Amino acid sequence: MAATHGKRANVFKWYGLASDLTDEPCTASGNQAQITDPDRRLLNPNVPITFTDSGGANLLSIRHVSGIAVFDAPVTVVTATGVNAYVPSGNLVKVGYLYDWQLTVDLDVAEKTVFQDDWKDFEPGIGGATGSAEGFFAGAGWFDDLKTGIEGTPWQFLLQLFSYDPANDGSGDHFTAWVAFNSLAATAPIGEMVKEKISFQVCGMPAFTPNI
Question: What pTM did the predictor assign?
Fold first, then answer.
């Protein structure tokens, strides 16, 4: 399990429709392929998207925040197709901020030690991530969306979680992830400021962008 902390995070809601992909070219490297056009890499996590390799490699997983597909073998020529497949940047609207956030990533493992082994052996399983923040600012109707999500119909929001941004202009180290907010609590001990803790579940694998 690994945990990362930061002071500021941007919350985006996706408004409007997503756009289609039809035989979208991808750049291949080993057993991975990434959509070549950077403006088409933010994929809709709610619809099926087909990545096809001309060499016949089988798709294992899709990383919806970076437009990357992972296959079970080295790939040749890969294309991506899907209705409502990617979210144009113009359809993202900043609706809030998180403060003092934490992101925790873990990987399930199963022990596969056998008789007479000298050391324990483990099989990696499925990864996951959760997060929380000690405070937030909600704008543009985000609070209503939070209540709806916590009541059982979660929206998926896009987070930019900054761990290092010396210029304070959004070009610093940050994680990007599709998330669903799943709890909200406010506390106000006597003599202290009100703090509103909020938690979220990461949907899929986060992406990391280094400081430019």
Answer: 0.81
